[in-house]
Write a structure and sequence with these properties.
SH3 type barrels, 4 helices, 6-stranded antiparallel sheet, mainly beta, 273 residues, 5-stranded antiparallel sheet, endopeptidase fold (from Nostoc punctiforme), 22 strands
């Protein structure tokens, strides 16, 4: 059975209760597979990027027919702002139908007009979103040119600048290390493993350190960062004083060099291996 995520940020847990650690977040408009009933009001799901967890049943629109119809509609993604309002009319005074965050998916109706895009929500309601907030919903790499794709990955990661650290987070409301890099790749049409390690069956492969280029990933014990070029890397960290998205350097002479991280790099991973 399939379902559509029907809330901006749907928390995934490893137990059927809100009183446990969030393992991941699934975002509005994503289609998931329901694996089993975990408890009354709770279901275990698998995401399209193959992550599994338990979510509240009320956060989903359940049914193969609804999910298949939704999957067939043309989509765009909330990309260019941290969040956006879906309104009932193409004006800022419209009634709020929903508030979505970066990474949420909406179906689009026609072309933008006067700066507004008509959209369809997963529950069938029609609304309007400021067109400039939306980006292309890529389901394949956004460019066939390696350098352009590398640049796009870094640009997507930088969209999360200013976001605080949240364990299991994957939105501008709070994001963890693997949430940040996996969302940057997802915004560019590439699905990688959600956690901070290289896993067979996903498109990140280990490469020698001397081959490191922008868009590649630096792995540490329980942590991951994206290399940006020129010795810089970005990551989301709970490190005191950083408290979320931050930039650091591989250069010992740099004021943003962190020896504790550089000395603990375990692997370099690349989509382009």
């Amino acid at each position: 059975m399939k379902a559509i995520v029907n809330t901006a940020v749907c928390c995934m847990y490893n137990q059927p209760t809100h009183a446990c650690t969030v393992e991941d977040e699934v975002l509005y408009g994503m289609v998931v597979d329901i694996l089993e009933q975990a408890a009354p009001g709770w279901v275990k799901i698998r995401t399209h990027y193959r992550y599994e967890g338990i979510v509240p049943e009320d956060d989903l629109i359940i049914g193969d027919e609804a999910a298949e119809s939704w999957a067939e509609l043309p989509k765009k993604i909330i990309r260019n702002k941290n969040c956006c309002d879906v309104l009932d009319a193409p004006k800022v005074q419209g009634v709020h139908l929903a508030q979505l965050v970066r990474g949420c998916v909406v179906a689009v109706i026609g072309e933008p007009e006067d700066g507004w895009q008509s959209v369809l929500l997963a529950d069938g309601r029609k609304g309007y979103v400021m067109a400039g907030i939306l980006g292309e919903h890529f389901t394949a790499p956004c460019s066939n040119d390696e350098n352009a794709l590398r640049d796009a990955l870094v640009e997507a990661a930088m969209l999360y600048q200013g976001t605080h650290y949240r364990w299991g987070g994957k939105s501008p409301m709070g994001i963890d290390c693997s949430g940040m890099v996996s969302m940057a790749y997802m915004l560019c049409g590439i699905l990688i493993y959600r956690d901070a390690n290289i896993v067979e069956g996903f498109p990140i492969r280990e490469i020698p350190r001397e081959q490191l280029k922008k868009g590649d990933l630096l792995f540490f014990p329980g942590h991951v960062a994206m290399y940006m070029g020129d010795g810089l890397y970005c990551h989301s960290t709970a490190h005191a004083g950083d408290d979320g998205f931050t930039l650091n350097s591989l250069d010992p002479a740099s004021p943003i060099y962190r020896e504790d991280l550089v000395n603990r790099i375990t692997q370099i991973g690349s989509y382009f291996a």
